[in-house]
Amino acid sequence: MQKKSLYQSLLILILIAYSCSKKPVSDFNISEQSTFALTGNKVYLPKLIMPYKIERKDSFLIVIESSRLPENKPLIHIINKKDLSYHSGKGVMGIGPNEITDAHLFDPGFSDSTFWVNSTISKRMAEFSLYDSSKLSISEFKQPQNMYSAINMQLITDSSYLCVMAADPNKLVAFNRNGERLGGYGKWETLESRSIESDGSQINNYIISEVNSGWFKRSSFGNLYVKAGIHRDRLEIFDFETKRFITLDGPRMQLPDFDIVGSGVNTAVIIADNHAYGHRDIAFSEDFIYDLYGGYSEQDYLSEGILAKTIYVIEKRGSVRYKLDLDISIRCLTVDQALGKIYGITTDEDPGIAVFDMPQELLDLLAE
């Protein structure tokens, strides 16, 4: 009896270990029955000059401009989601107190009345009010010296941050407000079928992270973070509560073509011009991840104005469930599943906000 009990316990431990390390099958080949065509309506707002990102916070859309915007214009626009009327502008461009140089990443924060942006050039995070009339941020966090190599940041709590680093053995690193390292999560794998010769592990980590670079987003529905590869077709879903990654590779399985130029601190990774972009942006609902996928190169964009016309709807555990085909090219997206709407920034010469109504059949399936 003791041997049988020991065998059963060992078998259970093996099954648990296997389930914890198993990578989900990445199947982006969606059937016709699970594919939906969405028709969009473009809304032009004159105050949007070089719109680059679109996010959502409560009853508002947050539109972020490119950092190439004229300095006297607000970097951030708050728009009423219901009727797309203009609410206010935020973000004074500069390096002074409560100014920002760019608004590279959005974080919803933990307050109903504010949101945060990660200003990567000036190495700070800035908190803005949804309701006051000032264009300046109401508070800011300047990265300590120990965090200077953090290139993308999202909040964990009001006083801790989860970061993508420029060159680190870990894929994600957590810090507190004093710049003290709280932990590192996920180790970089070597690039299959590609030999890298360099002058140290730090440079190797930099090269691998550059090939795997992309968007880094936090869900406002729990402790879920997603890194979406812009060059390599890879999604990494990280649950901070369990400290586990789920990795999805696809639709393309091969690495992008790239060259390594320079040496030492001057090393750079050059991706081929004709390489099509992969995952362009991520949005969240309570139970799903909405993955905007490209498949078009920079050359396609310059000649035809197309960046992305496909959205994959993915369960939080990594199962790709549905595919949405858009009739308007967009560069980014946000989703309000309760309203049944998807919003994006168009990629034409005079960009505006594209609004897509989700079909009731799809909404019913998502609610099951």
From TrEMBL:
| Pfam families named in the record | TolB_like
Q: What is this protein called?
A: TolB-like 6-blade propeller-like
* Record organism: Roseivirga pacifica
